[in-house]
Structure of Transcriptional regulator:
Amino acid sequence: MDHVQHVVDQWATERPELDATPILVIGRIHRLAIALDVELLRVYSAHGLGDGDFDVLATLRRSGAPYELTPTELVEQTMVTSGAVSKRVDRLEGAGLVERRVAEGDRRSRIVRLTRAGRTLIDRAVPEHLANEARLLAPLTAAERDTLAGLLGKLAVSLGL
């Protein structure tokens, strides 16, 4: 029995009129998210990155050549606030992994571009990241992963994510 089942069993004893079974899903997702963050950060930190840094670099890299996006596009694709993206870009720019430039045709707008060093770093980190994720999912069969991905996707859409 895992911790979450223990919690639900305790509620069943103390407040049997309540349906505590949603905790079986939400509690497990929450606990897994915390544990997965720790595991994912091991790879990021091995490359001198935090999770936010990795997210920005990976987003720029997967956008395709010339590996650049506006800050608004980064906000939309990383799903964090503009303030968080700005801090991440500042940090990455200071490390020489991204650069900002003025957008053509609109001098008020900026473009964030992956530098050669940033591309080299993210190209080294992504295969390790994906191998790490595969390792973390290894207890599940391919069919179980597909089912879980579908169910989590359905839940994410229902929450507007």
